[in-house]
Amino acid sequence: MLNEDQIKQSLEAVLVPDVRRSIVGLNLVREITVSDGKVKVNLASAALSESAQDWVSTKAREVIGKLPEVKEVTVEFSEAKPSEVNKISYIIAVMSGKGGVGKSLVAGLSAVSLKRQGYEVGILDADITGPSIPKMFGINDRPTGSASGILPVLSRSGIEVMSINLLLPSEDDAVIWRGPLIANTIKQFGEDVLWGKLDYLIIDLPPGTADAPLTVMQSFPISGVIIVFTPQDLVEMIVKKAVNMTQKMGKRILGVVENMSYLYVPEIDKKIEIFGKSRAEQMASTAGAPLLGQLPIDPELAKLCDEGGIERYNGEIMTTLGKAINQAISAKVK
Ligand SMILES: Nc1ncnc2c1ncn2[C@@H]1O[C@H](COP(=O)(O)OP(=O)(O)O)[C@@H](O)[C@H]1O
Ligand SMILES: [Mg+2]
User: Which residues pair with 200 in a beta bridge?
Assistant: First the structure.
């Protein structure tokens, strides 16, 4: 017997142009009714332009029409904003005490690692002072959309990416905006981007533990924060500030990641702690949160990031980081 599940399954094959994610994955399917071989599908219009809606509607009729017992198919759209459609299980913000410690890199690696674990992942570049996420992922496409919303751009491995950098006329246009304007833009990214169904949304916060990251965090229902640091950092100061900030907001620190922990020299099979002794254990215990990973200084990784090929990286962290994040998020809050 023809049923709704069967129809929904067939709609997995209907991809929204540009994002190339299915209307099911984007959570656009609102209602399916079947009676006597007559199928009616109601879809949310969120962020879909008229031509995208036409395309989706044609495709949907086509795939449903191929199912046995189907006599008639009607596809309708109803108005809905992306914020009404989005269903994100966990939003994780990546924070650092200062710039240049590899915050964006860790945000990117977290997304890639989680994706490789089989999760649906998005990444929001909220570091307007230096948006580096699109570059790392080799993304230059401009996002498309409609009056009611914007579609994210899909990376090569299927991660949804949104960054203000993608909306600027040229990649080199510096964003010299005042605080409130930045805050508003970021807020819009939460409300107007059609993320659809995601297991994880990773947010690359602006650097520091002052106003900018706080404003961004307030715009999203954050599940937890990851702190990135290097062995050079003043552990106490950074952690105290970050802990204060997250506690003030009623959020928790999911874990810490140490970047540039060491350099591995294969010729002598040794790890050299170039920036001094690792502070990983100390940082984790001061933060009262697990150490999610330690990242070596890796010239191969730097090269891949420059080339936009972060998704090709195969360091050990790629398997461990996603698992650690997943474990931390499902751990009971003390
Ligand atoms: N572990 C590492 N190995 C090699 N290069 C790194 C490493 N961490 C960071 N880098 C390089 O340092 C630069 C700064 O990193 P980024 O993540 O953009 O810092 P932040 O976001 O904290 O300002 C990038 O060009 C990146 O490729
Ligand atoms: Mg950055």
Answer: 90, 121
Q: Which ligand is located closest to the Cα atom of residue 228?
A: 1
By the CB criterion, residues less than 5 angstroms from ion ligand 2 are 104, 127, 132
Q: How far is Cα 232 from Cα 274, in angstroms, rounded to an integer?
A: 10
- Region(s) of the chain under CATH 3.40.50.300: 84-330
Q: What's the CA gap between 58 and 121, in Å, rounded?
A: 28
**What is residue 150's predicted lDDT score, i.e. its pLDDT?**
93
158 close to ligand 1 (CB < 6 Angstrom): no
Ligand 1 within 6 A of 104 CB? yes
Ligand 1 neighbourhood includes 219 CB (under 6 angstroms): no
pTM for the predicted model, two decimal places: 0.93
Q: What is the pLDDT of residues 127-154, one digit of tens each?
A: 877 779 999 999 988 898 888 899 999 9
Q: Is 56 in the pocket of ligand 1 (CB under 6 A)?
A: no
| Segment 176-182 mean pLDDT | 67
Atom of ligand 1 nearest to the CA of 298: 3
Residue 305 Cα: closest atom of ligand 1:
27
Tell me what the pLDDT averaged over the chain comes to.
91
Whose C-alpha lies nearest to ligand 1, atom 15? 102
According to CATH, the topology of domain 84-330 is Rossmann fold (3.40.50)
Locate the DSSP E strands across the chain.
29-35, 38-44, 72-78, 87-96, 121-125, 145-146, 149-150, 153-154, 160-163, 197-204, 224-229, 253-265, 270-272, 291-297
What is the pLDDT at residue 174? 60
The fold for domain 4-80 equals: GMP Synthetase; Chain A, domain 3 (3.30.300)
Could you read off the pLDDT of 27-59 as tens digits, one per residue? 999 999 999 999 999 999 999 999 999 999 999
The pLDDT score that the predictor gives to residue 233 is 74
Is the Cβ atom of 260 under 6 angstroms away from ligand 1? yes
Overall average pLDDT of the 150-163 stretch: 95
134 within 8 A of 160, measured Cβ to Cβ: no
Within the chain, which residue ranges are assigned CATH 3.30.300.130? 4-80
